[in-house]
Fold this sequence. Notes:
It is a single chain. By secondary structure, this protein is of the alpha+beta class. It has a single domain, classed as Pnp Oxidase, Chain A. The protein is built from four helices and eight strands; from the N terminus they run αββββββααβαβ. The chain has helices at about 10-20, 95-100, 100-105, 135-150; strands at about 25-30, 40, 45, 50-55, 70-75, 80-90, 115-130, 155-160. Strands 1, 2, 3, 4, 5, 6, 7 and 8 form an eight-stranded antiparallel beta sheet that branches. The longest helix is centred in the N-terminal third of the chain and has 14 residues, at about 10-20.
Amino acid sequence: MKTDTTDIAAVQVRLWDGIRKRGGTGMLGLVGSRDHFQPMTAFVERDTNQIWFFTRKDTDLARVVDGGQAMFVFQNDDLQACIGGALSLAHDRERMDKYWNTVVAAWYPEGKDDPLLTMLRLDCHDAEVWLSEGLAKFAWEIAKANATHKIPDLGGRAHIEFH
């Protein structure tokens, strides 16, 4: 899928769609922390530029000071992104109900009433997004680059500022 990286609105749509369509699993971590990033499933709310995550109250990420800076790193076959923003605890029952599914339920044996269950909210500030046209284009560009000794054209990069 070709997206003009100068069309920031189109890049943003492709970013949110990419996360939503691919199950939303990426790596979430705190900026400046000595802790490693952790795999988390993202639930995108594109109208508010927020990403929600289920977590347990006893995890490293849940111990974050409200508003701590975080990054969510996501990639699939034709999109790579690093999204930055403020991370906060947000025990939001409405969103728990909205995003609850069988995969989430597997991590919380006591269900939505599990006393350790909570949510994190990432208020997105900005993102760096790299776009490509998929594996066939990748293979073609690599072969062409090796034959011509020129750098492959694998897509573009865009910076998004969320408002």
